[in-house]
Amino acid sequence: MNGVYRKAATIIVILLFVSCIPQLSPKVLHFVNLETKESASYTMVILTISEPVQYKVTELENPPCILISFPDRKVFSSEEDVVIVNKGPIKRIKNEYYQSEGEGRRQLELVIVELVQDLPYKISHSGSSIIIRIENPKESELLDIEEKEKIGGDSQAKARDPLADSGYLIGPGDILNIEVWGHPDVSRDVAVDYRGEIKLPPVKRMSVMAFTTYQLEEALTKSLSRYLIDPVVFVLVKEFNSQRIIALGEITTGMYTLKRKTSLVEFLGQIGGPTANANVSKIKLIKKDGEISIHDLNELIGDPKKSDGVLVSAGDTVFVPPLEMSRVSVLGEVKSPKMIIVKGKLALVEAVTEAGGFTDNAVQSSVIVLRGELGAMKGYRVDMSRIFKKGDIGLNIELEAGDIIYVPRSFIADLERFLRDITLPLTWYFWYLK
C-alpha cells in the first residue's frame, strides 16, 4: 500500500507542477476587436483585448484626441493603421505601432481617437473591453465646424489654437520654468522625468506628457487651487530636449528641436535647404516607428495642400540622399568622422585610416558595420584588433556604397539589442558627424 500512496503522491505533484507552467510566463495579449455603437446622444468606442489589462489615458487639445496606451503589458495587433474614419463625433481612430516583430506581431503603442471637436467623454471597462463614451455634438456645432473648415477658421479660432504659436508638446527631458505669481516659494525650474511627470510642491507628482504650456498652466492652476487662493501660473519651456528630429545627408546635418507644428518643407527651409548635390526627388522621412515614406520636394512645394499633410514630429529622421550614393560614412571614435566618396574598391582599414584612425577611447574589437536601407539596416561586428595584432586580413572586408562604420566607446555585447534600442539606426549620427 505504501508504494501505491507514493505513486499517487508523485502523480499529484507532477499534475500540480504542470498546472503551474502557464503561470511561469506572462500571456501574450492581443488586440481582438474595435467597434463603435451610436445613439441619439452619444457614441461608444469599444476596444477589446484578449484579457483585462491596465491602460493609460492621455488627452490632446489640438486636434482633440483621446490616446489609449498600455504601459505595463505588450499588446499585439494585426489591425490596419487607420481603423475607423468619420463616425459620429469621431473623425478617425488610428492605431500606432512600435517597430514590427514579424507578420501579425506588431506591438500596439497607442490607440488614437481623434474627435471633430473637444467633447465630454467617460472611460470605463467591462471584462476585457475598454469603453469610451463620447457625447455627440449638436447639429449646429457640426455646421459651425464645417463652415470654419471651409474658410480656414476665423481669426479668433486661430488665436485659440496652441499650434498657431506655441504648439510645442512637452516631453521627457524638457526643463520648465514655472512661475506662480506672488509665490516665489512655489516658483522654480523643474525637469520632466522619463515618465513625463514633474514634481512641484505642494503638488506631489503630475503627468505633463504631450501638454502645451497653455494646457499645463490650466492644469497647474486647477491643482494649486487646492492650496492657494486664485493662483496665477506662467509656464515657459526653458530647455527643449524632447521634441527632436534628425537631418542627414545632403543638408545641414544635425539634430534639431521642433517648437511647433512643422511640415517637411518648412523644416527643410528652416535648416537651410538641400545642397546642390541633393536628390530632392527622393527625400526619405523615417518615422519613429520605422515607417519610411519618400517625397519629391518640388512636388510638395508646388502643392501646398499636400505639403501641409506631410508633417515631421519628434523622433523622425529626414534623409536627403546625394545624386551619387557611392559613399561610406565613418562615425564614432575616429579622429575625423566623415563621409567618404567610394571610387573603385574601399576596404574597412582604408576607410578608418582616411577618417584619421582610431581615438584613444575606441574599442577596436567591436567595430560595427551597418548595411542596408535606412530603417531596415543589418549590423556586422568586426574585431579590427585582430587585423592589426594578428594580421587577420580576412576581416578587412570590402565596403559597399551606403555602408556606415561605427567605432564604439565601449564593447557592444548584444548587437541585436544595440540595433533595437536605438530605434532609428542613425539616431546617434549627428553626435559623431558634427
For the report, how would you describe the main beta sheet?
Answer: 10 strands, mixed
> Class by helix and strand content?
alpha+beta
CATH-derived architecture of the largest domain: Sandwich
Terminal CA distance reads 82 Å
> What is the highest CATH level, the class of the largest domain?
Mainly Beta
Return residue spans where pLDDT drops below 50 for at least 5 consecutive residues. 12-25, 140-166, 430-434
Alpha carbon gyration radius: 27 Å
The fraction of residues in strands falls at 25-35%
Count of separate DSSP helical elements: 11
User: In the residues, how many domains can be counted?
Assistant: 4
Any idea of the CATH topology of the largest domain? Immunoglobulin-like
Query: What coarse outline follows from CA principal-axis ratios?
Result: globular
